[in-house]
Structure formats: structure tokens, C-alpha cells
Amino acid sequence: MSAARRVLALALFSQGVLGGLYPGLSTANHTCSLAKPILSCSDGAQPGLVDTCCTETYGGLILQTQFWNTYTGLESKGQLLPKDSWTIHGLWPDFCNGSYTQYCDLRRQYDPLPSPNTTTGKPDGTPVKPWKGAPISDYIKRFRKYDLLDFMNKYWTGLNQPSWILWAHEFSKHATCFSTFDTECYGPAYARHEEVTDFFETVVAYYQDLPTWRWLAEGGIAPSNRTAYSVADIQGVLRARFGKTPYVGCGGPRFNETKAGEGSADNGFTVLAEMWYYYHARGRVQRVDGVPTDATGSTTSCAKAPGAVWYYERTPRSVRH
Ligand SMILES: *[C@@H]1O[C@H](CO)[C@@H](O)[C@H](O)[C@H]1NC(C)=O
Ligand SMILES: *[C@@H]1O[C@H](CO)[C@@H](O)[C@H](O)[C@H]1NC(C)=O
Ligand SMILES: *[C@@H]1O[C@H](CO)[C@@H](O)[C@H](O)[C@H]1NC(C)=O
Ligand SMILES: *[C@@H]1O[C@H](CO)[C@@H](O)[C@H](O)[C@H]1NC(C)=O
Ligand SMILES: *[C@@H]1O[C@H](CO)[C@@H](O)[C@H](O)[C@H]1NC(C)=O
């Protein structure tokens, strides 16, 4: 867990879990297109002042998050990484102050491996069984969104698990905490699970505006198993393209525990792994009208020492050619 985002674990137990985010919300037509889009986290973006279906009022600080992995663990099943591209992690609704909550509607819990374990999540302690139903990809097929499914299979890749489990996890843990993806927002003609494909389409659209691999490569930062980079350079290149500072996440060994960092007080991590781009959203999140904003709190978990961060090349047989 990164120090950049503080979880409000208590919220999971105290509210929201038995209903939507705003109990009693009407399913009468929410005509968002008739109103001027309001920016999330701005002064007026409050429940009671705006239609929560038309302005994001719950998780108004929106993060499009991406992974850099060098393998998938399921290569033998044909699950490969896209060439010259980072992959999708998700689209997360943080509170405007940078903390967040998760699994906001356990009626829409399709995640077979909930983390944290939502099986103890109901306020009265009643376990909620892990999901044993159809894979979430079946909903996409039911709405005949085959192009979407194809794109997700290529660019939204699971690590050591089938990709659809990552998708189900992202939906149940994060999408249920957006006010604009509440089922009531879809009006009287709501078709069950339509917000699931709507969410996935929104995530993909945000991701398509953020070509991390190309931005870095054009800034002289290409994957290499010989030369390590400085996190300040990585962040500088991306800030020049995105307009604001993204959060750069690293894993692997801590710098002070590597040979290169022996004796150093820098205990940041040394293997580039994640990128989080922060936005506020104008109008409903589905409009994909994001206004870039700086990462809140700590902007990296990587070692800050010059040349301390490895952006590893992928294992060739893990890449789709
Ligand atoms: C929603 O809009 C449709 C189409 O305009 C209309 O037929 C229906 O009566 C409306 N329903 C409600 C609950 O307002
Ligand atoms: C951040 O905002 C949330 C939602 O408004 C609130 O519940 C929480 O207490 C706030 N946290 C801090 C540290 O201000
Ligand atoms: C979650 O908790 C339940 C009941 O306590 C347990 O049976 C299940 O194995 C746990 N799941 C995970 C993923 O840890
Ligand atoms: C490296 O930093 C970590 C975290 O601060 C610390 O626990 C560990 O003892 C340090 N290792 C060395 C070799 O100094
Ligand atoms: C580069 O190094 C990573 C991490 O050790 C490894 O997984 C990958 O296979 C290597 N890639 C190449 C092309 O050697």
C-alpha cells in the first residue's frame, strides 16, 4: 500500500455497503446533457447542490492508473503483454482530499479475490460470499461490446491471474465508489450490468489519452536492462506531456538494499512498475472530460538517487508480436 493514498478502511464497515452511495436516490431520468457540466471537487460539486449522477460528488479526484510488467505468468494460456505499451490498472475515485474508500456496493461484488477480504465486510458481520458467478467478461458479451472486450484483452492484462479477474476486481473495488456509475443514474430503463460496460469503456477512453510508453521513449527513456534512470527524469518527461505531475510507483528491492545503493539512506524502491495520472472530471465521468491535476501527497515510491530506477525490458516471449 502506497503512502500516497490513505485508505478510509472504516468507511467500508460504516456505510454504503448495503445500498448505493446515496440511499434513496431516484431512478427518474437524470438528464445530465441538459445541465452545464460541473467540475468535480469544485465548490459547488456537492450532493444537494448538484445531481450526483451528472457531477462526480463521491470520488471527485480521478486516477487513471497503469502497470509496467515484464511478464504475465499466463503466457502458456496466450495471455501476453502488448508491444511498446504500458497496460491498464484501472480508474480510481479518490476523495478530493486524496484519501479513498473501496467496495462501496457489495451488491455489485463480482470480484472472486476481494482484497481486502469483503467476506467480513457487512456492518453486522454477516459474511458476503466470494463471487462464484459468471466472469465479468460475460456482461460485456451480453451487450455485444466485442471491440471493447478485444481492446481489454490486449491492453488490460492480469499478472499471475486471468485478466478478467483484474477487471472484476477493479469494477467492484473502485467503480462502485463513483457517484456517476450508480445504477439509479441509468434511469427507469436501466438494464442490469449496463454500468459495467460503461465503466470499462470510460477507463479505456481515459487510458487511450495517456501513451506512457511513447511519451517516455520520445523523452529518451526506453526500457533497458543495462541502464537505469532517475525518477526525476521520468517524472519530468511525463509532466511535460501530461501538464501535471503523475505519481510514479516502484517495486522490487529498496535502493539501500541493493549493491548500487550500499550505505545510502535512500530506501525508495528500484523497479519501475506503476503510473498514476490524476484528474478532476467535468460533468459525469463517462464524458471523459478530465482536467489534469498534480498527484496529491507523495509523488513517488521510487528511489530518488540519480540512476537508481530500472525500467526493465520485457521478456520477449511475454510480448504479443
Ligand atoms: C423518462 O424519459 C422517457 C423518455 O423521455 C419517458 O417516456 C419516461 O416517462 C420518463 N420517466 C420518468 C420516470 O421520468
Ligand atoms: C477526506 O474526505 C473524506 C470524504 O469527504 C472524509 O470522510 C475524510 O474524513 C477526509 N479525510 C481527511 C484526512 O480530511
Ligand atoms: C476471506 O475470508 C473468508 C472467511 O473468513 C475465507 O473463507 C476466504 O478464504 C478469505 N478469502 C481470501 C481471498 O483471503
Ligand atoms: C533500508 O531501509 C529500510 C526501510 O527504512 C530499513 O528497514 C532497512 O534496515 C535498510 N537496510 C539497510 C541495509 O540499511
Ligand atoms: C530484462 O530484465 C527483466 C528483469 O530481470 C527480465 O524479466 C527480462 O526478461 C529481461 N529482458 C530481456 C530482454 O532480457
TrEMBL record:
SUPFAM superfamilies: Ribonuclease Rh-like
Organism listed in the record: Xylaria multiplex
Signal peptide from the UniProt entry: 1-19
Keyword Iron among record annotations: no
Designated name of the protein: ribonuclease T2
EC number: 4.6.1.19
Record-stated family: Belongs to the RNase T2 family.
Keywords, comma-separated and alphabetical: Endonuclease, Hydrolase, Nuclease, Signal
GO cellular component, one term: extracellular region
GO biological process, one term: RNA catabolic process
GO molecular function: ribonuclease T2 activity; RNA binding
